[in-house]
Design brief:
Layout lengths: L10 E4 L6 E3 L1 H12 L3 H7 L2 H8 L5 H11 L8 H9 L2 E4 L2 H8 L5 E5 L3 H8 L4 H5 L2 E4 H4 L6 H11 L6 E5 L2 H9 L3 E4 L3 H11 L3
Parallel strand pairs: 1-4, 1-6, 4-5, 6-7
Antiparallel strand pairs: 2-3
Helix pairs in contact: 1-5
């Protein structure tokens, strides 16, 4: 619950996955499983989370990410790069109805995208294919900044790019750790659960 306190907001930042876009990790895993005959449970067990974090920080290339993923799986395996990238694209689904809220908010506020993501998803899937990517006044991506939410540095960068004091920046994110991290950096933040709840919280803040 958000207290009914009117706050001054100069920039609104939206997370992408889970807020503006439905994501399907299990669909990606299943695609790789079908291509390799490795069970989904084993794929999840051996998913190289540490290397994935480097990928989202822009510290390794697309080719290095594929190679690391393939190397992390039980050996030998028959994962082909073309199948891997097809699976990678299976992560992303359709837009959510939060996009309608973005359209409404854009009438009065700059709206930004603030996401832990990778260059391939942005380049091949997000840019030009989804309405929210065209609505945004600017973007702050982990692979470009070298920092990931919930680290304070990425929020400082976001506020700086928006030309706004952190206390006047609002983050909408479905991850509680990211919400907490943004608040520690001085942001106002809302934990997204569903559209109805988000609209109520925005009304309580006096944003809509």
């Amino acid at each position: 619950m958000v207290d009914s306190i009117k706050v001054k907001i100069n920039a609104i930042f939206f997370d992408i996955g889970g807020v503006l876009l439905h994501i399907y990790p299990n669909r990606m895993i299943q695609y790789i499983s079908d291509a390799t005959d490795i069970s989904p449970a084993v794929l999840k067990k051996y998913f190289p989370s540490d290397v994935h974090e480097h990928y989202e920080r822009g510290q390794i290339s697309d080719d290095e990410w594929f190679a690391a993923f393939k190397a992390a799986l039980p050996q030998p395996n028959c994962l082909k790069e073309i199948d891997f990238w097809r699976a990678w694209n299976q992560l992303l689904g359709q837009e959510t109805d939060v996009v309608d809220i973005v359209i409404e908010l854009k009438q009065n506020y700059p709206v930004w995208l603030l996401s832990n993501t990778n260059s391939r998803h942005i380049r091949n899937e997000i840019d030009g294919k989804y309405a929210f990517s065209q609505l945004a006044d600017g973007t702050v991506y982990s692979f470009e900044t070298g920092y990931r939410k919930p680290e304070k540095e990425i929020f400082k960068i976001a506020a700086g790019k928006a030309g706004a004091d952190p206390s006047t920046c609002l983050l909408i994110d479905d991850n509680e750790e990211n919400v907490a991290g943004s608040k520690s950096a001085g942001f106002v933040a809302l934990h997204y659960r569903n559209t109805t709840q988000l609209e109520q919280n925005l009304e309580s803040l006096g944003v809509i």
